[in-house]
């Protein structure tokens, strides 16, 4: 098996302790390779390298930074199938999905290569003719980026590309389950000729690396995607050094289908909002609210759609749904379904999972599972399942469903389906979510802001809004 290294200061370096982490294929438990189990010392070296690169990178003309990013983008496009294959092998999603993610990851690099040239300042009219007021934007400083396992390509570039465009060097800490995709992307950044220290990557345990990143004053900002629990911990840890934080955290997305919706479209869009990545998405639908007159038709069409689905190893042709990431994820899905059934829910499709292979932590698969007769006291209605479970509850009125949809501590994504433009706009405005898919199960895109309300996070990623978290605003008052 190949043994990989950390990337620090433009060099590939081994772990000081020589400790390693196995990277497994979640479909069958095959060992894909080994990455270093870095700790405080390697992380400190990465911080030092990034800090040393800051002044030079920040002072480069935006056009020069843009050229570096554009070259990186071109290399990612050239190697997209190779990256996607690695992504499928270590994360599990079907290869076509993985290829789509890699293409999106490359587009983040291209987008911010262009946005780097559009970091504008202001001249503000002064209150006296003896002064001039100028506002400029400057990079916030060294950035630590902590990325999750469920989108190991797009989450890397969605964080790194705007940071680099703004003039900030980066230290990347990818998830230990899926570091190989990030490694391939960083290899291409190296080949693109980015200056030494501008990008650094350390793999290893979250506790040792995270603690070092949070305590070091040279790290000015942390951008994190993951659980709300960890996000809250990072907020607390950031207080001592007053670090800026951007957090994209958990979700509990409702999927609202009104009686005037195009039911065929509402069912088709479930593929993006729920079935993609085996439901392992922060924006995945967790609760379905269907108006009572159309609930039977919606359920019947879902069952028909799922009946032809193929579950299996994502690298094989024709597979619609790959494995869950590990046994823990499988057990959570099982627990949510069993809890719902014990409280009166009925399984009308699916409900079966299985384990393949000899590895205890890999090879876990689950059918898309449709539940009806769902009630609010069930775990599926207030905890994030992160699996292909579709709990369906009927509703009568618009006010009722808006109240139910907003009754959560989360506010990342919501989906609603109606053929009434007036209803669509009014309900969208009343829903307490950062992302609204109106007749759209896949609203995330490179050029739009991604992020949530309430405990779903702080800040936005994507679009021109994604640059703001990496920039400081400086006001210069000039006496003349």
TrEMBL record:
InterPro entries from the UniProt entry: Ald_DH/histidinol_DH, Ald_DH_C, Ald_DH_N, Aldehyde_DH_dom, Aldehyde_DH_Superfamily, Succ_semiAld_DH
Name of the protein described by the UniProt record: Succinate semialdehyde dehydrogenase
The record ties this protein, via NCBIfam families, to: SSADH
Family, per entry: Belongs to the aldehyde dehydrogenase family.
Q: Which GO terms describe its molecular function?
A: succinate-semialdehyde dehydrogenase (NAD+) activity
Key word Oxidoreductase present in the record? yes
Set out the biological process GO terms recorded for this chain's protein. gamma-aminobutyric acid catabolic process
Q: Which residues form the Aldehyde dehydrogenase domain?
A: 12-476
- Write out the entry's keywords from A to Z: Oxidoreductase
Keyword Cell division assigned: no
Q: Which CDD domains match?
A: ALDH_F5_SSADH_GabD
**Origin species:** Natronincola peptidivorans
